[in-house]
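Hey, weird one. I pasted the Response regulator sequence into the form twice and got a warning about non-standard characters only the second time. First submission, copied straight from the form history:
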Amino acid sequence: VLMALEREVPDVLVSDIRMPGIDGLELLKQVQRDYPDLPVIIMTAHSDLDAAVNAYQKGAFEYLPKPFDIDETLTLVERAIAHSHENKREQLSPEDIPAETPEIIGEAPAMQEVFR
């Protein structure tokens, strides 16, 4: 994920809290350091209050416990994208605003299922 972010920064990042290779909260910490305006939605099957508070304290845009309603999740992602676009527009002059290019990065089979 971090290597993909070096090539192109998406409008929103959705990450599980438990992943192989890097913990979702550690990823959140690095994303907040390197891309502070990128909204990050943290999702988890192991929902507890401490994890939610920790995610918010580290800068998560939202915390999404599994199982989640797909329509509510899409609404949340749209809200995060709107937030991201608003932040970008505040930082750029009108001629610098890029054309929208929707693309989803997610290689895990579970993430591919969410994107369908």
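That's the output from the first submission. The warning seems to come from a hidden character in my clipboard, not from the data itself. The first helix runs from residue 2 to 7.
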